[in-house]
Specification:
The structure is a single chain. This protein is α+β, with helices and mostly antiparallel strands. It is built from 16 helices and eleven strands. It has a six-stranded mixed β-sheet with strand order 1-2-6-3-5-4, sandwiched between helices. The chain has a five-stranded mixed β-sheet with strand order 7-11-8-10-9, with helices on both faces.
Length: 466
């Protein structure tokens, strides 16, 4: 069914009005982040949100798989698992039990650029959460016995989420050839051979080197008062000594050499349908004020795949029936170089060659004809609404602050980024498509589906956290 553009225009006007009203409310209700630096270098950012008696506390370490070296890939994620194994004060397993007993939830995550740990619970339990988290910042007890058990859990996690998942495996193989030198070529979870040969000393060395207050950001969002949180941070984190370690701006630059031609890889794995990923090297934000290309690329992503009537879904799936599904992906914020992804699954009777031709065709349309002002206005409304709606969740607010702080930008840049997105022009979108979507920056990965053996799916390993 074709969309009724008269309704779309009315809806767009309504969205604009809601956004203007929402942004005005946001300025008074949420524009209150308070930043502190403890004497040991720990950065604390507090955002008050008094709508419910709940608080989120997150500690972000400015270290991820990007900082690993050959032979110990996956160690950042392995240590994340080991952080729940206890300290001299808190025995193995007690951390999670205490949070659960308080009615809260907790977990952790490892990315290319950072590692984070969080708790979400009633505000009265924030002191307990801080006491527990600060204790394991420097007092973690790593034993060979626990490490030997947990490394098996991580290896099984790799099997379940990558080796036995055809599309995840294709993505991993694509990244491994898309990047020649940069650590983004290695999977966050690590290569299996490195996991098999990892020792508890590797995790200990990683912990000793990177887990320090002067390499961390503590983000607290919720029904709290900023000064009270600062006093709690002083109490629980203030006595932890800073350590000598390379800060983000002192680490050796890891510049990816320019790609000089299309790279292609075929991955054979058990699956029902073929799958295609096309990855283009593009920039990420380095200077939020002077950069413009990453914002144009983010808008291009939304034009291609930001909503039900976006171009890829409309053209490839609904109109021409070339694909069962098609998507675009891009992240403007990262410590390393950016990548813009196009991916799709062919519909019955179509091939990955048909998919690649169709995806290239959609980019060519933008290079040749550009996008209309109405299309861009509609996408801007949706993108901006998404940023505003993030503020409905205290967890999302904390994640947004922690992520941007961990990659070397500032929480103050969040509003600047929003304004820059609103300022993107149709010509800028056309310009970045023309500049970056060419064969010299392209890596293509294809899933060649193999027959699927009938077998009972493996159970998730005990201790799998996320």
């Amino acid at each position: 069914m074709k969309p009724d553009y008269r309704i779309s225009t009315i809806f767009l006007s309504l969205i604009r009005w809601i956004l203007i009203s929402g942004l005005l409310v946001s300025c008074s209700a949420f524009a209150n982040p308070h930043a502190y630096i403890l004497t040991n270098g720990l950065k604390l950012i507090v955002k008050e949100d008094h709508r419910s008696p709940v608080v989120v506390s997150q500690i972000w370490y400015r270290v991820g798989s990007i900082d690993e070296v050959n032979g110990v890939t996956g160690v950042a994620h392995v240590l994340e698992h080991m952080m729940f194994k206890g300290t001299e004060k808190i025995p193995n397993g007690e951390f999670s039990k205490k949070i659960a007993a308080a009615g809260g939830r907790e977990n952790a995550f490892t990315g290319y650029d950072y590692t984070g740990y969080y708790q979400q619970l009633h505000k009265q339990h924030l002191p307990m959460a801080m006491e527990l988290e600060s204790d394991r910042m420097r007092n973690l007890v790593l034993t060979k016995e626990e490490f030997d058990k947990e490394i098996k859990v991580v290896m099984e996690e790799r099997r379940l989420r990558t080796d036995d998942q055809a599309r995840a495996l294709v993505y991993e193989k694509m990244m491994s050839i898309a990047f020649q030198a940069h650590p983004y070529k290695n999977p966050i979870i690590g290569w299996m051979n490195d996991l098999e040969n990892m020792r508890v000393d590797d995790a200990q060395d990683w912990y000793d080197r990177w887990y320090a207050p002067n390499n961390a950001v503590l983000v607290v969002v919720g029904d709290v008062k900023a000064d009270d949180v600062f006093q709690l941070a002083q109490k629980y984190y203030g006595a932890i000594e800073k350590r000598t370690l390379p800060q983000l701006d002192a680490r050796k630059p890891q510049v990816e050499p320019p790609q000089v031609g299309t790279k292609r890889i075929i991955v054979k794995a058990p699956a029902e349908l073929p799958y295609l990923i096309m990855g283009y090297h593009v920039p990420a934000i380095r200077n939020v004020t002077t950069d413009w290309e990453p914002y144009a690329l983010e808008m291009l992503e939304s034009i291609l795949d930001g909503h039900a009537s976006a171009r890829l879904n409309k053209s490839l799936v609904r109109e021409h029936h070339i694909a069962n599904s098609a998507s675009a992906g891009y992240g403007a914020t990262s410590r390393g170089p950016g990548m813009f992804f196009l991916s799709a699954v062919p519909s019955a009777g179509k091939t990955v060659a048909d998919l690649e031709k169709a995806l290239r065709g959609e980019i060519e349309k933008i290079i040749k004809d550009g996008v209309t002002e109405e299309e861009l206005a509609r996408v801007k409304a949706q993108v901006i609404a998404g940023h505003v709606y993030q503020r409905d969740s205290i967890f999302s607010q904390a994640m947004q602050i922690g992520r941007i702080e961990s990659i070397g930008l500032s929480y103050r840049d969040i509003d600047i980024i929003l304004e820059k997105l609103k300022a993107v022009t149709t010509e800028q979108i056309r310009d970045v498509a023309k500049k970056y979507f060419n064969d010299d920056t392209l890596t293509v990965a294809v899933l060649d589906p193999q027959s699927i053996e009938q077998k009972t799916p493996p159970k998730a390993p005990v201790g799998l956290r996320h």
